[in-house]
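Progress note, sequence design subtask.
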């Protein structure tokens, strides 16, 4: 069977699924959402699931994953539990506001929108589309374009629920918000939740996202998150991906930053059978700063693929990209990053690096850092390394009485720490340090008091 035939069959399966469930998909959704849904569906019919012929997806065979039979969560699964019974964070200093998504749906169906101090609002995207139509119309599907990516088009065509966060002008949310994405069912499932984060001028917020699987069936996720960060706003986004190896995840993060805004993102990947992370950033005003970090620790045939597109559209902006990976036991990985500096984006400072350690000969890493510069007064650099542990450093440690295994762990931990120390929440940074240490030692990397067995 040719790759082209598989592509047609996979696309047609979702086209048929859409037609069979049109009424259910459009129910409880405002007309303006359904109009965008129809447009996205038309784009998906043209684009389909990207194959490895697509330059942006050349290292990951998504068509193969989406050609499996998964239940699609077009309506919420009726599973009842107390969050305290399954999630007890053992970092009390973190002191977060906890919200839960279950199979892509906002879990608290009795309280779909909640007002936070200062007038901020958090809750269900589906409910927000009904209650705040003007706000959603202004931002929904404005940054994640369906005509450019078949995966975004698929998500938008099937959009029902996800997370909504609105922070009004001048408001600071003092307590970090912890979003727990849980996948749990008796059968394999496909989730396609949609998240929208809006931070108005001079506002500030911190988000911690934890991705977990709570039951043994295979799961597939295709999520899209859009972030609008207005003038002089501050936003910190930390994410920990810790799902079992039967989970496959494709996530799309779209950031639009306005003048003098600052965004920090940090993604720590500890577990997951296949993870594809797309990060797109538009620096849409002077004085923007963006710091995008990633750390991935993979083994046992896991595959991690990071794609980053950093668009410097205005002068005097700064961006930093640092992604580090440790690959072991026939794991595979990819990094494809581009920094675009437009013609008028003078005084740009942009730095991009991808560094990888391969612990065994059966691992494979593809890396492609890129600069595309049309301005002449810039300071930009990019680079990538793929290699093994430094033998001289290893010899130095062993010569001082440190056993070989511990010496290797010390070097790997020091390698990973450049990313970990960029986490802005001290208690979270400490917890991630502990989890990474366990992961490198091959131990179960989950919170000590958490009931979720994610490995």
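Output:
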């Amino acid at each position: 069977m040719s790759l082209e035939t598989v592509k047609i069959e996979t696309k047609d399966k979702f086209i048929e699924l859409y037609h069979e469930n049109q009424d259910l998909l459009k129910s409880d959704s405002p007309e303006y959402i359904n109009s965008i849904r129809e447009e996205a569906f038309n784009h998906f019919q043209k684009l389909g699931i990207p194959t490895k012929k697509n330059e942006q997806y050349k290292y990951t065979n998504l068509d193969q994953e989406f050609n499996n039979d998964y239940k699609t969560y077009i309506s919420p699964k009726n599973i009842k539990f107390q969050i305290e019974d399954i999630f007890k964070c053992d970092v009390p200093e973190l002191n977060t506001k906890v919200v839960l998504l279950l199979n892509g749906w906002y879990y608290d169906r009795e309280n779909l929108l909640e007002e936070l101090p200062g007038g901020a609002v958090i809750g269900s995207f589906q409910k927000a589309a009904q209650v705040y139509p003007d706000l959603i119309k202004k931002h929904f599907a404005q940054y994640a374009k369906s005509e450019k990516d078949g995966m975004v088009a698929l998500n938008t065509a099937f959009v029902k629920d996800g997370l909504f966060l609105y922070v009004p002008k001048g408001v600071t949310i003092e307590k970090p918000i912890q979003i727990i994405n849980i996948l749990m069912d008796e059968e394999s499932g496909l989730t396609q939740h949609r998240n929208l984060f809006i931070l108005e001028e001079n506002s500030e917020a911190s988000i911690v996202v934890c991705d977990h699987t709570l039951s043994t069936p295979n799961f597939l996720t295709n999520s899209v998150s859009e972030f609008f960060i207005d003038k002089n706003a501050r936003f910190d986004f930390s994410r920990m991906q810790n799902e079992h190896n039967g989970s496959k995840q494709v996530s799309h993060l779209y950031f639009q930053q306005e003048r003098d805004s600052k965004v920090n993102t940090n993604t720590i990947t500890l577990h997951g059978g296949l993870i594809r992370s797309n990060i797109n950033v538009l620096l849409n005003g002077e004085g923007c700063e963006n710091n995008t970090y990633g750390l991935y620790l993979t083994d046992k045939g896991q595959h991690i693929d990071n794609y980053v597109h950093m668009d410097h559209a205005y002068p005097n902006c700064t961006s930093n990209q640092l992604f580090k990976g440790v690959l072991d036991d026939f794991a595979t990985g990819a990094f494809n990053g581009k920094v675009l500096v437009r013609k008028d984006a003078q005084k740009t400072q942009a730095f991009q690096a991808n560094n990888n350690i391969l612990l065994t000969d059966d691992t494979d890493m593809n890396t492609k850092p890129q600069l595309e510069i049309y301005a002449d007064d810039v300071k930009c650099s990019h680079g990538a390394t793929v290699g093994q542990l430094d033998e001289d450093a290893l010899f130095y440690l062993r010569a001082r009485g440190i056993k070989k295994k511990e010496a290797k762990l010390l070097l790997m931990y020091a390698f990973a720490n450049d990313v970990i120390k960029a986490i802005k929440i001290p208690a979270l940074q400490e917890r991630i340090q502990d989890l990474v240490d366990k992961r490198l030692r091959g131990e179960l990397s989950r919170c000590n008091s958490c009931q979720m067995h994610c490995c």
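The chain has one domain: 3-387. Work on this subtask will continue into the next period as scheduled.
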